[in-house]
Amino acid sequence: MDPKRTHSVKLNDGHFMPVLGFGTLASEGVPKSKAAEATKVAIDVGFRHIDAAYVYENEEEVGKALREKIADGTVKREDLFYTTKLWCTFFQPELVRPALERSLKKLQLDYVDLFIIHVPVAMKPGEELMPKDANGKIILETVDLRDTWEALEKCKDAGLTRSIGVSNFNHKLLEMILNKPGLKYKPVCNQVECHPYLNQSKLLEFCKSKDIVLVAYSALGSQRDPNWMEKDSPVLLEEPILKAIAKKHNRSPGQVALRYQVQRGVVVLAKSFNEKRIKENFQVLEFELTPEDMKAIDGLNRNFRYFKLPFAVGHPYYPFSEEY
């Protein structure tokens, strides 16, 4: 991967990650084939960083899209940066490698570029993605994240993944990993919800100080999935200040929200299955916001979280009770 050509950041293990990623999570009711079509469009448009996860249940489709784009000569495997995530039911150390191998089998790839812990909260192991008790409550477990992390390190050593990282961790959970006796590899990234209403400036500062890249999901607000968020949540892309800045640059509010992240040194994920918007999202590398624009967007922060992970409240590793 040519870092200059793909606008990449260097990770703490020496690999490069493109600053703009394509998200593959489909909303409920969207056919899985859509993920494959959209992934192919994204690669044609120029995206080289594909963000996926076991729990999205569409890795076969996404993998097929990647292989088709490699077969038709659009890209080589080494041009692509593919992320998958360890789901909460596989946190026990002996389940980690088989979980990654399962994703690789679905993808029909030899390795992924990045393997991350999806959420710091373990659930009861088994085939169910959301194991529930008789009352419909999700069954949580406590697995020491340091043990899970060690199993990720072994996946890296085995060549099944190039890099390893985390997602939805606060600074205390990151410190727990960083201070682990015998730590072999630091997390290369922490993927978290991040947008102008939740700009994560303290967590960003902390991550930068530890040479950990912050990766932003829900950078455009959210897909407003009723399973995960409250109906009356504010609509980020209708924010007047974003609209005004967008108008000034002759861009869309979404492009401004994405560009904001790129300029503050955050790797940003953009998810859309709409061809026009996929193209628009990739164009954020073509313009620049002024320092005044950046300051105005910083001023929108209200520490508002779309994804609160209510099922995990009370778990010892629940990440959102800390300020950052």
Structure write-up:
The chain is of the alpha/beta class and 324 residues long. It has a single domain, classed as TIM Barrel (Alpha-Beta Barrel), CATH 3.20.20. 33% of the residues lie in helices and 15% in strands. It contains ten helices and twelve strands. Strands 3-4-5-6-9-10-11-12 form an eight-stranded parallel beta barrel, surrounded by five helices. It is globular and about 55 Å long. The mean pLDDT is 94.
Radius of gyration from the alpha-carbon trace, in angstroms: 19 Å
Mean pLDDT comes to 94
Helix and strand run = EEEHEHEHEEEHEHEHEHHEHH
Q: What is the distance, rounded to the nearest whole angstrom, between the alpha carbons of the first and last residues? A: 33 Å
CATH H level, superfamily name: NADP-dependent oxidoreductase domain
Under CATH, the topology can be stated as TIM Barrel
Q: What fraction of residues sit in β-strands? A: 15-25%
Q: Kindly name the structural category.
A: alpha/beta
Q: Name the shape in a single word.
A: globular
Question: How would you sum up the major sheet?
Answer: 8 strands, parallel, barrel
How many domains make up the 3D coordinates?
1
Q: For the largest beta sheet, what order do the strands appear in spatially?
A: 3-4-5-6-9-10-11-12
Tally of strands: 12
**Uncertain stretches of 5 or more adjacent residues:** none
- Name of the top-level CATH class: Alpha Beta
- What is the CATH architecture term? Alpha-Beta Barrel
Percentage of residues in helical conformation: 25-40%
